[in-house]
Amino acid sequence: MTVPPKPTPLLEVEHLTMRFGGLIAVSEVSFTAMDREITAIIGPNGAGKTTVFNCLTGFYTPTVGRLTMHRKPPKTPLYLERLEAYRIAHKARVARTFQNIRLFSGMSVLENMIVAQHNKLMRASGFSLAGLFGLPVYRRAERAAVDLARYWLDRVNLIDVADWQAGNLPYGAQRRLEIARAMCTEPALLCLDEPAAGLNPRESAELSDLLTFIRDEHKIGVLLIEHDMSVVMTISDHVVVLEYGRKISDGTPAEVRVDPAVIRAYLGEEEEETPPEAVQRLAGGA
Question: What is the pTM of this model?
Answer without folding.
Answer: 0.86
